[in-house]
């Protein structure tokens, strides 16, 4: 085997065994067998801007189109590395083309696409289909096929969606062919629109950060922000616990919560929450006083959370398995003076409380046993009051 053939084989071996599949979206209400074709003419101003960019920058037009395609696939898949089939114009099945879509400028994305395209074309003479069978790779790593200008028509059974560019009488045209069990006409046109938007943004500002720009049309943004939200409804002038109390009055005997084999009705849950709330108030809980709830996620946790709101306090959730140092830091930073907890959840809490003076621990069992009234405490809670404090790792905002 010659050096060139060895290099080709190794390139495609890595490409075929790298793993990961970039799937096409399934945007169809009624899947049916078959295919459909759509065409979208690139607006004259966009086509003119693209060609001007190609002339100024000496960039291959195919790489500009491939960069826009990669951006669309990244937006659809949520991945920074995508794989598309690439019709190399030599017949046979499309070749897998792996593309990085790193943060940065459109120009950098075009450079990455140019490099990926050059590698595919440099190794295109190798019998990739035969190697795929030899390696036991049954399915291609792409569902979307890209066809640059002048490329042969890809096989109809290769992929879910074909995106092919062509020149028709000097006009740049995007041709789409898709399987109708995966995409309907509207879905295909949306993807076509994303390609046009990517081209427009790329040509208008090649040095702009593409991660800060959206491919959605104004109509789609409006639909997602307003249409999918449903009709506007006035918000009730009531707090969460007050809405819960309304439900209690309407359905006191309906089951409100279930944990394992135990279930509480709305009336039972409300009564327990009221007794806990009165126990907190009896210990001097004031306006926006912070109460930590350190329990497992069970029915008492639900009652304790409601109790804090009913008493006008601020809910501070703390997992009982947290290290003592972390619990102590949370209590200190939140200026917490009361902790609702339960037996079995106090090991690390007790260690933490030993280092944080002035914090009172109240087991829910003790609070229940004190015999407080179980009617609603009716503590006034204004809409602008602080309701809870969350400590997060940053992943939730």
Shape: elongated
As for the number of domains, it is 2
Q: In this structure, how is the largest beta sheet organized?
A: 6 strands, mixed
Alpha plus pi helix count? 13
Report the span from N to C terminus: 56 Å
Q: What class would the helix/strand composition place it in? A: alpha/beta
The Rg value, from CA coordinates, equals 31 Å
Give the name of the CATH superfamily of the largest domain. Nonribosomal peptide synthetase, condensation domain
Number of beta-strand segments:
12
CATH hierarchy: architecture of the largest domain: 2-Layer Sandwich
For this structure, the CATH topology of the largest domain is Chloramphenicol Acetyltransferase
Low-confidence stretches: none
* Topology pattern, helix = H, strand = E: HEHHEEHHEEEHHHEEHEHEHEHEH
Strand order of the largest sheet: 1-6-5-4-2-3
Q: Which percent bin holds the helix content?
A: 40-55%
Mean pLDDT: 91
β content, as a range? Answer: 15-25%
For the record, what CATH class of the largest domain applies? Alpha Beta
